[in-house]
Design brief:
about 90 residues, single chain, mainly beta, Immunoglobulin-like, flat
């Protein structure tokens, strides 16, 4: 009798195929320090744009919902190099 395995999140039975995993060298990213004065964050009703005065390419993305532009809180954490933006959603 053939041994069958139930594949996760699939509606079928089958056997698992063997996979090869490639090991690649990671490219190191240049760390350019950005001053907080060089950052420009613009939050619209349905979009966010982050610019850094020519150091990096601007990041522009669409929000799938409307946000209240008057109550936005942004914090830059230098320890983790992370920008967090809290935006309340308008229902």
């Amino acid at each position: 009798m053939q041994k069958l395995t139930v594949l996760k999140n699939k509606k079928s039975l089958g056997t698992l195929q063997s996979h090869r995993i490639q090991i690649r060298d990671m490219k190191k990213c240049e760390e350019n320090s950005v001053d907080i004065q060089d950052l420009n964050l613009e939050v619209g009703e349905d979009g966010v744009v982050l610019e850094s005065k020519g150091i990096y390419n601007p990041v522009d993305f669409f929000l799938p919902c409307s946000v209240d532009q008057d109550v936005i809180d942004a914090k830059l954490d230098r320890n983790f190099n992370m920008l967090s933006v809290k935006m309340p959603v308008i229902h």
